[in-house]
Amino acid sequence: MGVRNRHFSREFKVNAVQLVIEKKLPVKQVAEDLDIHPNLLTIWKSKYLKDEENAFHGKGRIAPEKAEMRKLKKDLERIREERDILKKALAVFSKIKK
């Protein structure tokens, strides 16, 4: 049996996990019914229980906390540039007044 690279939608993963959590079906049975490895379903379940809202954010999308970190870093860089410009302007105006 070769390794298969299959991709599953967020909806598929959530539904699979909910069968285990809400319907109280065994992981092994659900995995077998869905033709996935039980370990994969166990991983999905732990991710879902850890952060239900942000679990399975998908390919190409970043988690909200990472997006916020990117935004804050960009804002910080912009503010540093503005500060440096103001420092230079202050130095120039200080020389002019003398």
General description of the model:
- The chain has 98 residues and is mainly alpha-helical.
- It has 2 domains: 7-61; 63-98.
- 68% of the residues lie in helices and 0% in strands.
- Helix 1 crosses helix 3 (38-50) and helix 2 (27-34) packs across helix 3.
- It is rod-shaped, with a radius of gyration of 25 Å.
- The relative contact order is 0.08.
How would you describe the shape?
rod-shaped
Strand tally: 0
Oligomer: single chain
Q: Roughly how many Å is the radius of gyration?
A: 25 Å
Tally of DSSP helical segments = 4
Largest beta-sheet details: none
Helix content: 55-70%
What class would the helix/strand composition place it in? mainly alpha
Mean of the pLDDT scores? Answer: 89
Low-confidence region ranges: none
Strand content: under 5%
- CA(first)-CA(last) distance: 83 Å
Number of domains: 2
Q: What series of H and E elements makes up the topology?
A: HHHH
Key features?
98 residues, mainly alpha, 4 helices, 68% helix, 0% strand
Short characterization:
It contains 4 helices and no strands. It is an all-alpha fold and 98 residues long.
List the helices and strands and how they pair.
Blueprint: H1 10-21, H2 27-34, H3 38-50, H4 64-97
